[in-house]
Amino acid sequence: MTAPPPAGNLPADEHFGPDDAETWHRVHPVSPMVKGWIGIIAVILVFGRGIFEDLIAGRGMPQYGPGGDTVPLWIIAGGLILVILLFALGFFLSWYFTRYQVTDQHVRVNSGIVFRQHRQARLDRVQAIDVVQPLLARLFSLAELKFEVADSGSSAVRLSYLRLSTAQQLRATILARASGAEPDPEHPDQVSEAPEQPVLALSGGRIVGATLLSGTTIFVALAVIAVAVVAGAVDEPFALGAVLAGAVPILFAVAAAYWTTFSNSYNFRAATSPDGIRLRYGLLDTRAQTVPPGRVQAVGIVQSPLWRLKGWYKMQVNVAGYGVDTQASGSRTTLLPAGTSSEVMQMLALVLPDPGTEDPFDVFGAALGGRDQHFGFTTTPRRGRILDLLSWRRNGFTATATALICRSGWLWRAAQVVPHERTQSLALHQGPLTRRLRLADVVLHSTPGPVTARVVHADLDVARQLFEEQADRAAQARRVSAPEHWLAPRRDDGESTESRRESGPESSPEAVPETPQAAGPAPEGPNERDKDLPPREDHNGQ
Amino acid sequence: MRSGTAREPVDPVDVQWSRVSEKLITLRVVGALIGFVIALLVFSVPVVLMLSDVWPGFPAWLAWALPAVVVVVSVWSLLLIPRQVRAIGYAERHEDLLIRQGLFFQRVMVVPYGRMQYVDISVGPIERALGLASLKLHTASPSTNATLVGLPSAEAARLREQLSSLGEAKLAGL
């Protein structure tokens, strides 16, 4: 391609060919300000408040020294200008030194003024891509692109901020190259977003209802009852007042919890595309997540007691790049904030395209709300009910041809689905009590995330059999598991390929030459084990 | 009394466990004794204060009970150490590595070779004196807490090489 001037800004309609080694791009110039606005406001507050208060109080200009001399106006103005200049310089330098490029196989970001950081990540290692728009960035029509690889820490690559259209184009480019899809032979430099089909959208009413009926409400109800009991027992108005005063910070926390739940699930929409699952949501800050096929490691479905009234469920996922997601209060790992059982089935179909069973609705329906041994479930034997007085008929598991399903919980219903080829390791646990009752637990280890799959209190022989069989099933599934390049032409049969860029996922098979990855020199280094390690190279102090 | 090498209920049927070195008992006893001495010193403070009339009002039964409890608990855990060490075992199978541990809370874990991301060997000062090493397997899951302590150094090195080559041969994605 013709080399654009180094570090030129991308026009929105530029052709996205692979960058060569010398081509670098910069993020949008406004970015540092959007990132640093809290700092600016803090400085204005700290320095401005004193002056402002003095002016309001009619004391005129601030004074210093014992003599009460007035500070000359020019010093204040000069100081202000100096602070603004310093900020501007910092912003400019941080912008100037941040550069990125997306080549055929890597995305690279250089940043840092004093401590330089060079980071590169392999495109085919992508676990998820998010396009995030915090409120202020939305005002400027900017967006942050987050590129996640499997290391559960912070994002491997964060490009903040780009023009929204640039970010979306870049996402399409990265996904196209990571998927191994064939570029359009006539316009190899042009990449369009993979076509997507909407799957479901949650109404505002649903989100409000789900928020109001959430576990927070149960907590509030219990707290109100406790306060009422205390108030009934204690006559003294002073003590009651103390209790109520102590409740104020808790009320704030509760309100914040409600608000977070609501704003993070607002306008939730899910779609499917050849590039994977697309999730979009958010009230003030909006986020669009793309999880390519085969990147979901485990699915958890939970139902809090009040949601049973409406038959709603919440779905969470383990995705290697997302980790436990403490910063966004769990919204990134939420696959469905509040859905009916049929919506749960729809989302499950996206995550697990092949359920591996003849009647998926019955089996997964039994996982959601069933109990006893229907539809192939094996539950805790009767002698184990002393350990699970209420839930022993529900605790159970079943294995389909493609996934293991565990369910548990009587009041707080929970179920987990782990595809066989995503099982990392397995453990069989037995404590003193379960040993006496000839029971055992089987734990499936998954990548970091909110979902922990555990078969509780199964019969010992059943658990041991499950342990052995599951190890075998996982080994079998690993051998046939889908390739990392999810749209790449299969090299072994060579003829059944999908070219999504032209006619979508259901295109007719056509012979296409091998992928660029396969055609070029061997992309792997001599050390094959590097493949699974986080593809990250940090060089500080360069 | 059940011997540590007997087959436990959670063990798979046809597995022959390799056991870790008996020197691990020495290592753990030394560690436990150090902890025991420190705990005894701390919990004997009330007795000393009481007998030296610094704090005569301290209830005598409590002052004596504290170190007594420490002694009982320590002796009990010291006696358990040999059985705990003999309860640790591992087995290399065709597709995966089995690791077992625990007496009261038993655990058998299977780590597929294709899932291993890397293998760590660590050696502490006392371990080095005894010729032992610890081996830790890492998968993409943090809950895979697969550590083998008390391996003879040569066996640890052999296992690491073996696991690395098997891991490469059977490598699977995430």
Structural class of chain B: alpha+beta
Shape of chain A: flat
Strand residues, percent of chain A: 15-25%
Strand order of the largest sheet of chain A: 9-8-7-13-12-11-10
Give the radius of gyration of chain A. 28 Å
First-to-last CA distance of chain B: 44 Å
- Enumerate how many helices of chain B there are, as a single number: 5
Architecture overview:
Chain A is of the alpha+beta class and 542 residues long. Among the domains of chain A are: 204-265; 296-479, no CATH class; 500-532, no CATH class. Helix content of chain A is 34%, strand content 23%. In chain A, strands 9-8-7-13-12-11-10 form a 7-stranded antiparallel β-sheet, with helices on both faces. In chain A, strands 16-15-14-20-19-18-17 form a 7-stranded antiparallel β-sheet. A 4-stranded antiparallel β-sheet of chain A has the order 1-4-5-6. In chain A, helix 5 runs antiparallel to helix 7. Chain A is flat and about 85 Å long. Chain B starts with 17 loop residues before the first strand and ends in a 5-residue tail after the last helix. Chain B has 2 domains: 23-84; 88-169, PH-domain like. In chain B, the strands form 2 sheets. Chain B has a 4-stranded antiparallel β-sheet with strand order 1-2-3-4. A 3-stranded antiparallel β-sheet of chain B has the order 5-6-7. The longest helix of chain B has 27 residues, at 60-86. Chain B is of the alpha+beta class and 174 residues long. Chain B is elongated, with a radius of gyration of 21 Å. In chain B, helix 1 (23-43) runs antiparallel to helix 3 (60-86). Chain B is built from 5 helices and 7 strands, in the order E-H-H-H-E-E-E-E-H-E-E-H. In chain B, 45% of the residues lie in helices and 22% in strands. The A-B interface holds A 127, 150, 152, 295, 297, 320, 421-432, 435, 438, 440, 443, 445-448, 452, 460, 464, 467-468, 471-472, 474-475, 478, 481, 484, 528-529, 531-533 and B 9-10, 12-13, 95-96, 104-112, 114-115, 117-118, 139-144, 146, 164, 167-168, 170-174.
